[in-house]
Structures
1.
Amino acid sequence: MERRRFIHTAVAALPLAAPAWVPTADERSPKGFKARAGEGRFHGHLQLKGVNKNVLDVKVSGKDTNGDLAIFEQTSLSQGRGTPLHVHLGQDEIFYVLDGEYAFQVGDDKYRLKTGDSIFLPRHVPHAWTQVSPRGHMLVTMQPAGKLEEFFVAMAALTTDPTEQQVAQLFAAHEMKVVGPPLKVE
């Protein structure tokens, strides 16, 4: 009888012993993939409208990683424009500048990033960025993926530039909250 109780206790504890982030075999493909230069997975080029007119390519989708990670390549065409001050409710964000110059605000701190620089934006911390150079190019990593990919698809599907209220609603519908105006570059 003691042996049976031990086995039941040990089996019941197994889910607690396994790390929560380990995907099962049917949650993620065992095959790698290549994201070609100048191409985006699932959506092609997303021409954004609203806070900027940049082109976005999904390089690694949340669909590829069971929501663990997403990576976007952004071609920046909107000098002097960027995002409103906002927070991500459940994702950390990392930007890596491939080319150009950007201004970032993270909490109360302000930074200038140039080619080769990167910045970490923790979840729940208000942040914004603005494109400084005439053109730019960045990689954006979200962890976990959250709903940012769907946000970009929604921004690209707009037929006109949204109002500030519509932008705030789009942010809220995709796990973000607008908390202030865009970052002004001096």
Note: The chain is about 20% helix and 35% strand.
2.
Amino acid sequence: MSVSKAKKTTLKAYLQKKNKVALFAFIVIWLLSFVVFINTIVLGDWMKIGLAFSALVLFLVPDLVSYKLRLHLPATLEITYYLFIFASLILGEVFAFYGPFPFWDIILHLLSGFVIAGIGFSIERIVNKDKKSRIFTLIFAFCFSMTLGVLWECLEFSFDMTVRTDAQKDAHVRQISTITLQRDGGNQPVRVNEIEKTDIHLSSGEVITIDEGYLDIGIMDTMKDILINTAGAVSFCILGAFYLRNNKKDVIVNNILLTKD
């Protein structure tokens, strides 16, 4: 038997043992996303084309990781991942759910912080084979989640600065504290309260008025996302601590942990 045929047989065996619910979820969500991708092409919106195409590629990651690294991904983790990509890139970005549904971003960052901490937890246990202390495992899981969360925010900032996207969503601010308005050069912040509107004067002479205060262009969104990510990571670590203490018996934790085949 040739090497290529052997690999093909191995891949076929992998697909045959894949959880049928997870496989069904993948097929349905991927096809829905593909329809959205075709629609973005018809509309000619290059930004949305890129987002929809990215989603189609990212849907393949769990199977590639599982197949290449011989890892077992629980069906719950796989389905959660598919739903997360669909909710963030397709519904959130392509269909702009982030605007009318403020809680959308909060739920996704809370979920990602929780699940990524679980993945970090799994990686530490697989690599070190339970030789490290419980505290080390929990700290690693927390830091793994926070690191990826911060890197994601850096990625959003990079896209906003280079491609001129708006991944870091704006926020209306009614009050600020700043030393910039301190006329005597001191370090005492000047507090500006009850800002009603802001006028932006362009070099062309056009004036753009921002109602409902001062327009923050990303800082509040970024810090809110990091704080929510922190809450998700801490939530997993609390469950992870009980999991380790109770001889690895926890339904929620067991359903999102990677294991080595």
Note: Strands lie at 71-72, 171-173, 176-178, 190-192, 197-201, 207-211, 214-216, 259-260.
